[in-house]
Amino acid sequence: MLRFVIRRILLMVPVLFGLSVLLFLWVRALPGDPARALLGEKATPESIASVNAQYGFDKPLLQQYLIYTSRLLRGDFGNSPRTGEPVLGTFIQRFPATVELGVAALIFAVVVGIPLGYLAAKRAGGWLDSFAVGTSLAGVVIPVFVLAYLLKVVFAVGLHGPLHVLAFLPSSGRQSARIDATHITNFYVLDGLLTREWDASWDAVVHLILPAIALGSIPLAIIVRMTRASVIDVLNEDYVRTANSKGLAPGLITRRHVLRNALLPVVTVIGLQTGALLAGAVLTESVFAINGIGSYLFTAISNLDFAVLQGFILFIALIYAVVNLLVDLSYGVIDPRLRTR
Amino acid sequence: MSDQTIAAGERAVTRSRTRPEANRDENLLEVEDLSVSFVRRGAQPVRAVDGVSFVVRPGQIVGIVGESGSGKSVTSLAVMGLLPQRGVVASGQIRYRGQDLLTLGAKKLSDLRGREIAMVFQDPMSSLNPVIPIGTQVTEVLLRHFDVSRGEARAEAEHLLRRVGIPDPGRRLKEYPHQLSGGMRQRALIAIALACKPALLICDEPTTALDVTIQAQVLELLKELVNDLDTAMVMITHDLGVVAGLCDFVNVMYAGRVVESAPRHELFAHPRHRYTEGLLASMPRLDHPRTEPLRPIRGTPRDIVSWTKACAFAPRCDHADEACMSPDLELVLDGPGEHRMRCVHPAPLASDVADDD
Q1: pTM score, two decimals?
Q2: Predicted interface score ipTM higher than 0.90
Q3: What is the CATH number of domain A93-338?
């Protein structure tokens, strides 16, 4: 088991190295001149040259790469030329907001998706099944930012006329301004619990509802369909028939014999959804004005902020790799056949 | 686990055994005119079981013999109430101690299932849940039907595994199905089926998936266990060898109907239906020269005509003629011990299959 984990962690090294090369080249292949983006339209050629010299953009590509890598290895991700803030520091400061959003979205997707997928499978071909499949298709098809704006307009800003009553949720931010909460970890919900400021915690949860639904729509759709297909397979398994032949209660058969087996492929999919969640967070955070890494990345892309792009994307890749490692390890917990002896 | 705890578990289980004492003369199970059809939208319904009747007396071992597609497995699933819930139409009666199982409510049926009527399935590889320890799979049936604690159920489970010949049962309880061999898994399934000491055990080809050497062991075990527990057994098989060593009474099925039924010795000594005769003749025999080719029944089970038009076996029968083309042939009483058969040109009584070469 330990050897498996160590091997998987070592395997992440070449992946991250390859990614750093790709990122380096990709960022430099982007159209637009970073110095011009930094200085604005009216910059003189001299000031552009001086900025290029300051950040080393005038050096040959290979040399730039070597400087970049040697700094990376020392844990120096550089500063944003626009704000002057260190990339690593900003990331750490903004990361909790994104994690909170991602976890909330995933909880929404799992809590709604697995029961919905299960019920669809039990009534395969019925109206509930068609509804679940239809909804999940819509979830995949509708872009995250469209859904985000729709939710915001209906449930936060408010429609004209009687439907205005639906607008009972906050439209942006992570917490109401009136709440003067103490922040220890920067996970606002957690902070409220730690400091026993319950209303602060609750306020943070309320602020998470709309963004979580918007962001959770993609994993929700996939979880519904995976669960449905998987449950249909398992319901036809011989061991479910054996469980029925014992006269067990339907609830016990569902929990112990059907769901445990059916959820194996679903867990894999949930791990793979981390990528989609982080990508979706970029837009969701922008729409709901959440100060996470997504909205910061959005600004960085608009401003061609090389240092931030490189650093953030590398961190995101690392998170993705770690989450999928955890998913792989969780197989052993769910399926004894995969336990290494 | 000490012997004392095992004894305690056993006592608990024995105590909660409240079953009406078997009246020897009463039939335990009466299947009467059972028909099962599979209905699909836009397709002709398929009648898998077509008016099957048979009885099982307490403690009796009854064989149901037939090839794939003869309806024997569907019959067993119907008795267990495990037919798919949709797309199936079942008619007739399945009376267990006088109660019709086909009309019994789901809750009452599940009270009987595992407790009164249990089943051992064909494929031990897929019939155990792969992600749950063997122990839980044994104890859950005890906990469902008896008022016992987890500890008592566990002790009883260990006792059961030992009883079915699984070595080191305490360790095996914690293991998962993939850690057991096929034979061991089938033993575990037998332990599960017999955990509540049911009055009726249905075995659907319990040895088909096993090695030949293991087959004999498992059959011997089943025979011994049902004898000890005084459990009646319905043995579903395509293997006449299994029937010969085990069953008191045999029903031969073809194309969804019983074509011949007789006590075991009577059937082997005087097979009357041409299909039974063909089955017996096609068995490889040790007392025949090895060079002698096997004598199969020609054709395949797909060469079937509807019983409503003629004898379904006629297309594969060497003795078929115009007379076989009459619709809905009767299952007629034909010999001692309730020997019945459904054939216009039955095998002559004088020519015993074993002697005719």
Answers
A1: 0.80
A2: no
A3: 1.10.3720.10
